[in-house]
Amino acid sequence: MPAELSPIDKAKFAAARRAVDFIQDGMKVGLGTGSTAAWMVRCLAERVREERLKIAGVPTSTRTAELARELGIEVVTLDEAKWLDVTIDGADEFDPELNLIKGGGGALLQEKIVATASDQMIVITDAAKEVAHLGAFPLPVEVVPFGWQTTRALIEEMLVSMDVMGRETTLRQNGGKPFVTDEGNYIVDCHLKRIGNPRQLSLVLNQIPGVVENGLFIDLCDIVIIGGAEGEVEVRDINEGTVTQGRVDFAEESNIFSDLD
Ligand SMILES: O=C(CO)[C@H](O)[C@H](O)COP(=O)(O)O
């Protein structure tokens, strides 16, 4: 393993490596977006190469599609795949019920569509993203550019009546311009601090005209895999009610790291 890999990257790698053990030959797999998901794509590509697995991957962003293709994973569209066996993705926050905030990387719309079209969603993460209540991480809301300021005002007005602590919103920027998603939309980040009722907030947000989708993932995640910097991994399965501990041996994964050099 390269010495320069930070403890957080080691933790993300450990979770990602454990997650790809869930993939079997012939599966259709949703490929998430973000730095943790990128580790998962690298680990999956390694299994595809070594074990000659036949996998069809449905990426959740152009970034992930490029990485998957580059590493030799067969990429298909969701319409071609129709339904997926499993999606593996990162998250910005998760709570004890495995509800999530996602969209820090701006890919929440495709991520939510792909996760919803999967038998199972596995979230890979490090321990710092576990919270008692969602909301410390700003909640991303994807809005169409047409009339976005009106949509933002409606979001702020709606937040007044919701069980949240903060109400400030910001338009996500990229190099001094609005950040534009793969679907050509903008993102309004809502700084809520604490979300009392994520399920209700998600429903209400999506009723505002101009809102395309929000970053609350409710009842979508089945398994969370929490990685640690020493290779330790905890697998929590909300449906089975099980928690299992394991370890990833970084030395055994040297091929993945040598590919990075
Ligand atoms: O939702 C996402 C992208 O839209 C990511 O999964 C989330 O932001 C976590 O990213 P990272 O693994 O880089 O911490």
TrEMBL record:
GO molecular function: ribose-5-phosphate isomerase activity
Known catalytic reactions: aldehydo-D-ribose 5-phosphate = D-ribulose 5-phosphate
EC category: isomerase
UniProt keyword Isomerase, yes or no: yes
Keywords assigned by UniProt, alphabetized: Isomerase
Annotated EC: 5.3.1.6
GO biological process: D-ribose metabolic process; pentose-phosphate shunt, non-oxidative branch
Catalytic residue positions: E111
A cellular-component GO term for this protein: cytosol
Pathway in which the depicted protein is active: Carbohydrate degradation; pentose phosphate pathway; D-ribose 5-phosphate from D-ribulose 5-phosphate (non-oxidative stage): step 1/1
Ligand binding (substrate): T33, G34, S35, T36, D89, G90, A91, D92, K102, G103, G104, G105, K129
Database matches in Pfam families: Rib_5-P_isom_A (PF06026)
Keyword Isomerase part of the UniProt annotation: yes
Family, similarity comment: Belongs to the ribose 5-phosphate isomerase family.
PANTHER family, alphabetized: RIBOSE-5-PHOSPHATE ISOMERASE
Oligomeric form and interacting partners: Homodimer.
Described purpose of this protein according to its UniProt entry: Catalyzes the reversible conversion of ribose-5-phosphate to ribulose 5-phosphate.
Identification of the protein by name: Ribose-5-phosphate isomerase A
Natural source organism: Pseudothioclava arenosa
Gene responsible for this protein: rpiA
